Amino acid sequence: MRPKFIVGGLIILAAVIYLIVSATRSNAEYFMTVQELRAEGPAALGRNLRISGAVIGDSIQYDVETLTLRFDIADIPGDNAEIEAQGGLAEVLHAAVMDPARARLTVVYVGPRPDLLQNEAQAIVTGRLGEDGLFHADEVLLKCPTRYEEALPEQAGSE
Question: What is the pLDDT of residue 149?
């Protein structure tokens, strides 16, 4: 009778482990830079992703009737030590927006326009890359410009 209990216990244990692993994979979010996303290519399609970049102010479009927000973000380093080595967050955001050679990504979000959305703000978007090449965001977070206002005060007030 013991072998039946051992086999039954192992089957239940295997099923529980399988459920945990599959649930973790489906809910996992991968934090990437715009450049890393571009390097992934088609492998990134449909995966839950969190991408960080500098908002390019000239690209911001908002349709008040459909609540559709569309804007571009430019690649910034994903490592805080690298950001500090390049002069801090304000300097990195400014350089990213000014450099047309940087990798860029178009973000589409349906919802209210965030108050802090402006040129050279740091956007952290969560969502999925679509087959159309657009990043369809479920959530848009923006780092408050006052955090780096002291470094470049002209950025904090610009729209």
Answer: 53
